[in-house]
Write a structure and sequence with these properties.
The chain has 353 residues and is α/β, with parallel strands linked by helices. The protein is 40% helix and 16% strand. It has two domains: 168 residues, 3-Layer(aba) Sandwich (D-Maltodextrin-Binding Protein, domain 2); 134 residues, D-Maltodextrin-Binding Protein, domain 2 (3-Layer(aba) Sandwich), CATH 3.40.190. Helix 3 packs across helix 11 and helix 8 packs across helix 9. The chain is elongated.
C-alpha cells in the first residue's frame, strides 16, 4: 500500500471518529527537508513533501534510458506528467560504463547500470533506500543503499519462425540455416557479453571458452552477422519479447532450458546529483507498484515482483505474457564476470576477427 493511500485511510478514520486536533492544540511542526537524505522518511517525512521539493527543483537528468527499452518511454512520460518535472534524456544509447565516464560532464541525477559497473563505482552513489526496500531480494541490493536492482531478465534466443525451427539450445545455432547476431560486441555491451556467457553455460557453470568457440564456429561458417540481417538474435528476453509482441508472425522468443542465464540492471542516485530530490522521487516512482508494473509492461521482470505477487499488486495478466523461464536464473558472480571479461579481451578479436 502506498504512503498516499495510507494517509487517505488514516484521514478518513480520524474524520469518522471525530478525533481531530482541538482548536487549542498546535500541529507539531515537521522537520526541515533534507533533499540528500538516505530515505524518504528521514529527508521528507511524507511522499507529498518529497514531490513538492522535487517539483521546485524543476528538472531531472536521466542517462542511458532508450525509450523502447523496458517501456522507459511510457515510464518517463508518466513521471513527468504526474509530478510536473521536466525530464532531460541524456545519451539514451550509452553503455553502463559510458554513464559513469560521462557523469562529470553530463551530470545525470540517476543511473541505470549493469551490476559489475555499479560495484566498481559505489563510491560515486548517494545511499538511498526506497520505500519498497524490504521487498528487494538481499542478493541484488547494496545493504547501505548505494544501488539496488530495478528489473531483470533472462538471456534469450529471438528467431524468425518462417526461416527455421525454434533452437532448443545455443549449440543448435551452429546448425545450417541460421544466421545469428549478438546485441553488439561483448567487449563493449553488457547484453552481448551475457549472450556469450549464456552460450558458455554447462550444467549451470560458465566456461567462457565454450561461448567463444561457438561464435567462432558461426563466424567461420558465415552464419554470424549483424542484427538487421539475422534470423536469430541473442539478447535479453524483454528485448526479444517486445519485438515478438509487435510482429508475432515474424518473431518468437525462447529461453534455452540448459542456459537460464539471468541478470539485473540496478538503479543508483549520483552523489553529485544536481536535482537530489527529483532523483529520489524518480526512484520512488520506479520502485512503486505502478512503476514496477510499467517495467513489466516492457517485458522486464520487476525486482519487487515476487513480493508484489504475494501482496496482490502485480499485474498478473501482463506477467503471463513474459517468455516462459526454464527455472531459477543462473546469476554470474563478480569473479566469474571479471575472469570472463579478461579472457574476452585477449581472445575475442582473434577468434572472431
Amino acid at each position: 500500500m502506498t504512503v498516499r493511500t495510507c494517509a487517505a485511510i488514516a484521514a478518513a478514520l480520524l474524520a469518522s471518529a471525530g478525533c481531530g486536533a482541538s482548536p487549542t492544540e498546535e500541529a507539531k511542526p515537521l522537520p526541515p527537508v533534507n533533499a540528500k537524505a538516505a530515505s524518504m522518511k528521514d529527508g521528507f517525512t511524507t511522499m507529498e513533501r518529497l514531490a513538492e521539493t522535487a517539483k521546485k527543483e524543476g528538472s531531472l537528468n536521466l542517462i542511458a534510458l532508450p525509450r523502447d527499452w523496458v517501456n522507459y518511454g511510457e515510464i518517463i512520460d508518466t513521471f513527468a506528467s504526474r509530478y510536473g518535472i521536466k525530464v532531460n534524456e541524456l545519451e539514451p544509447a550509452a553503455s553502463s560504463q559510458r554513464e559513469i565516464d560521462a557523469a562529470a560532464q553530463l551530470k545525470p541525477d540517476a543511473f541505470d547500470l549493469s551490476l559489475d559497473v555499479a560495484l566498481d563505482n559505489t563510491a560515486k552513489f548517494a545511499p538511498y533506500k526506497v520505500e519498497g526496500w524490504q521487498d528487494l531480494p538481499d542478493h541484488v541490493k547494496d545493504h547501505n543503499g548505494g544501488w539496488y536492482a530495478g528489473y531483470g531478465g533472462y538471456m534469450s534466443i529471438g528467431y524468425d519462425p518462417r526461416k527455421g525451427a525454434a533452437p532448443a539450445s545455443f549449440a543448435d545455432l551452429a546448425k545450417p540455416g541460421y544466421t545469428v547476431a549478438l546485441a553488439g560486441s561483448p567487449l563493449d555491451t553488457a547484453a552481448a557479453f551475457d549472450g556469450v556467457m549464456a552460450a558458455s553455460l554447462h550444467k549451470g557453470s560458465p566456461d567462457v571458452r565454450q561461448g567463444v568457440a561457438l561464435f567462432a564456429k558461426l563466424k567461420k561458417a558465415g552464419q554470424l552477422t549483424d542484427a538487421p540481417k539475422a534470423s536469430v538474435v541473442v539478447d535479453w528476453d524483454y528485448v526479444n519479447a517486445d519485438r515478438a509482441a509487435k510482429d508475432p508472425e515474424a518473431w518468437k522468443v525462447t529461453i534455452p532450458r540448459d542456459a537460464p542465464l539471468g541478470a539485473f540492471y540496478v538503479q543508483a542516485i549520483s552523489k553529485d546529483a544536481p536535482h537530489p530530490a527529483a532523483a529520489r522521487l524518480w526512484e520512488e516512482f520506479l520502485f512503486s507498484d505502478e512503476g514496477q508494473n510499467l517495467l513489466q509492461k516492457g517485458y522486464a521482470r520487476p525486482a519487487r515482483g515476487e513480493a508484489m505477487l504475494m501482496k496482490g499488486t502485480l499485474d498478473t495478466e501482463q506477467a503471463a505474457k513474459l517468455p516462459v523461464a526454464p527455472g531459477p536464473p543462473v546469476l554470474l558472480t563478480i569473479p566469474q564476470t571479471d575472469s570472463a571479461k579478461s579472457y574476452l579481451k585477449k581472445e575475442w578479436a582473434e577468434a572472431i576477427g
